[in-house]
Structure formats: structure tokens, C-alpha cells
Amino acid sequence: MDFLSFTDLTLFLLLFALFVYVFASVTITSLHKVYLTFHFCMMFWPICQFAIKAVDTPKVQLFYLKLSFIDMCLIAVGWLLFTIFLTGHARFLRKKLSILLFVPAIFVAVCVIVNPNGKFVLPLQGNYIHRTYGPLFWVLITVLIVYIIVSLYLMSRALISDKATRIKTQVKQVFKGITVMTVFVCLDIFLNVVLHLPLPAIPGLTSLGILLSAIFFVIAIHRDKAFDIVKIAHQDIIDTIDHGILVLNDNEVVVEINRTLLPHISFRIGSRFDMANLLSKGQSKSNIHLFLQTYQMHPLKRTQIEIEFPNERYVNIQTAPIRVDSEMVGRVITFQDVSEFYRLIHETNSQNEILHERNQSLIIKQDELSLTNRKLEKMAITDGLTGIYNRRYLTQKLEYEVMNNIKHQIPFSVILLDIDYFKLINDSYGHLVGDQMILSTVAAIRQTLRQTDLLARYGGEEFMIYLPRTSQLQANFLAERVKSTVESNKMIVKDIPHSISITISIGLLTINNFTMESLRSPHSYLNELLESVDKALYKAKEEGRNRIVSVVR
């Protein structure tokens, strides 16, 4: 082997040194992993080219030759993946269509491995150091050119887009690297394959192009911080925070200022910060001396103070230590402008009395509305004369209760009663006495009812009582008690020499048997029940009044 044969080995060692340098000098992120994989693939080409010349066996030479061109396919895919990540199109790789990126490279790699009938490469002079390429070689070159064109297209689009200047600088650097690599690869193909010069092949052209492009990439990584995502993200976050942020080292020297704070202070990075001098420019409602004592004598403690500066600017200042392994290495001081907050407080205080008076007025009106609403609600469900529930509320209540009783097989009863000969009382004594008689009768009935029973005025002199969870025997007993209590009730009326008493006729309905078909039409079923108890009351009147007619269903 002559001296020139070691060109590829030398370039491999330089590439390996760059690989170790990048690996050892950066914090590895997802983008760094992509690049290192790409760089690792680039190292294979020169070492394989050196190995072809270092061995004498044609089969082994062919193995390294195929391996080098398979590696070139990987480099082409790596170019594209690297470009996709760098230009911010990584989301495309999550789609199923991303598999199409690898199909052409896989196809040509298979063609290289199989080398059907020598259509990719054939040996000259009995070995593969001197070789001739077939049509599949040009298919591979065409595929590589397509990958390069797509990569360059994505980067050119990024350069003319509205992306940040920092990103464009990185893309421009990588663009140069891939362009340089492409030029050297094309030069290698032109001089060593197309021209077929009688002179010996020029070694290391592609390897040199790979090395130069790697140098461009490393410059982008270190100088332009292409992949320093964590640091960039931290800086972007600090610069977008509304609070002013000042970072000091352990000697009270400014090492970082965010954009929010820059327009408002005279400090610059590298200048010494003097907290006492800053506080002397304003006045505080709290104890400045205590704050400074804590700041100076107890630096590991968090502390804060609010200062009023000229022009009615209020600033909340907070300090916190920066620790590494329990040792203080600096401070973070935040400045929050709370002037708007104090302005709102002053405005609020000036409006407090007016708001208080308005609130009192609103409270009074709210109480009045609440009282009115309660009255309206009561009027909607009660009878105006007697104060007991009206027919509308009763039917609504019964519709729910009846369906619930049927659903759970609970017996219940309904009493419908009517004052006997009530018209005669109105005709004899007048309607006012008739109203008093109704009120007296309601009072007497209430005395006989249980807490769970529901009494409602059903019509003029008709009343209905709902008896929940009541069997026929219990209902008959309660009906008899109501009837006797009303009959024994004596009402004294002014200007009438004798007391007045009345009797009532009662229709009683008890439900013991239940059919689930009734649940299909609750309203119709309730009408049937009311009609049944009404017929019972009518029968009681026909049979002479002052009696009870009971119906069981």
C-alpha cells in the first residue's frame, strides 16, 4: 500500500475525533442523538474504503465495497432526517407516510447486496480495488441525488420562511455542509468513475467531503448552539416572563438580566449590584432595615419587600438564594411591578362607600323580592280562603304519589268529602257565614289528620284528603273520625241565637291492587281514580248524606 492509500484512514480518524468531541462536550438531546447516528454512519465510508485496499481477497474487498455503499444509503437517509429535525418538520415522522422515506434507500441497498449478474459492480484485474460500475450503481446515485435535493429544498424553504434568525443561521451552516459534501461526492464520481482516467484513482475525495461537512455541522452545534434546546428554552422562558429577573453571583455581580427588566434599571451584566442603594431611591410601608438585615446577614433566607418609587410606581422585590450542594453560589432577584394593583386598590377604596350603599339597597330589594316570591309561590299552590292546598297542587302531587305507590306496591287512600246542604246555609245566613263555616270545617278536619296526610280544597264546599300508606281499615277509621269531628263542631255566629253545625258526605277510595300498566299513562290513571271517588261521594249523597261510601280497587 502506498502513502495515498492511508488517506481514507486518516480522514476516518479525524471523523472519529470529531465524534468523540461532540459526544463529550454537549448535553445529549434527541437532536444530538440523531446527529451522532448520522456522524457514525459518515465514519463508515472512509474506513470501508481503506479496508478495500488493505485486504487482498476479492470476496472480502467486495464485502467492504458493498458495506460502504450501504453506508452511503444510510448517510443519505441521515441527511434527510437531520434536515427534517433541524427545520422543525419532525411531526412528519410520526405519520405512517414517513415509511416512504426509507423505501428507496432500502431498495438500492438490497440491489447493492445482491449485485445481480454484476449489474452493480464488477472487478477489474481480478480484484475490486479496480472496478467498473453497472446500471444499478447509477440507480443508487440517482436515489442519493433525490435525497440531497429534498434535503436542500427543505433547508431553502426554511431560509425564506419567517423562522427566527437563530434557526436560519443554523440551517445556513448545515446547508453549506451538505453542499460541500455533495460537491466532493460528485467530483469523486466524475473523476474516478465517469472519466476513467488512465492515471490511478484519486483517493479520499468523498471521505474529504464527509469530513468537511462534519466540520460545518460541529460548528453549527457549538458556535450557533443548534441543538442546545434546554439553554435556548430556558432563555426564551426567562425573557417572556412579565417579572423582571436579575441573577447575581456570590459576589453580588450581575450575571443575567431578562428583557423585561433591562429598560428600567441602569445595571448591566458584569456590574456590581447594591441593594441598599436601590432601596434608598424609594420608600416602603414595611421595615427596610429589617429587609436589608435579612438580605445581608441571612442570604440563604427568602425575603421580599414592596417599594414605592417616584411617579407612583410600586415594585415588589423578592430575593431567593441559588444553591449547589447546599452551598450558596448566587441569588435570583425578581421585580414585579404592582403599580396597577395599587391603583386599583385606591380606586376601590374611593368607591367603597358608594358600593356599600348600593349593596344595602340591593339587599333590601332582594329581601323584598324574596318575600314576594314566597308569597307568589304560596298563592300558586294554596286556596285563598282556607290557606290549605288548592286543587291544582293536589292533582300534581297525586300524580307523582300515585305512580310512586304503584311502582313500590304501597297501599293508599283518598277521601273526597262535601258539606251537606251548604247552599241552604248561604241562602239562610249569607255568604260571609258560609265562608266562616268552611273555615271552621277546615279547622275541625285538620285536628283529625296525621302529619303525612294532605288536605286540599277540591271545589266550593268539596275537600279531598290524600292518605299515604293507608289500608282500607285505617282509611275507614280516619273517615269516621273526620265525619264525627265535623258533625260535633258547633260554630257560634254573631246575631244568631243558636249555634250552627253541619254534616258531611264522604266518598272513600282505597287502592290495594296495583297493575304496572297504569305507569304508562299516569294522568289517565289518576283521572280514573278521581272519577271513582267522585262516584262514591255521589252515592253517599243519594243514600241520604251524612255517611261514608267506601270503594276498594
From TrEMBL:
InterPro entries according to UniProt: Diguanylate_Cyclase, GGDEF_dom, HisKA_7TM, Nucleotide_cyclase, Rev_trsase/Diguanyl_cyclase
Family matches, as PANTHER family: DIGUANYLATE CYCLASE DGCM-RELATED, REGULATORY COMPONENTS OF SENSORY TRANSDUCTION SYSTEM
Protein name stated in the entry: Diguanylate cyclase
Transmembrane segments: 6-27, 34-52, 64-85, 97-115, 135-154, 174-195, 201-221
Domain GGDEF: 410-553
The entry's keywords: Membrane, Transmembrane, Transmembrane helix
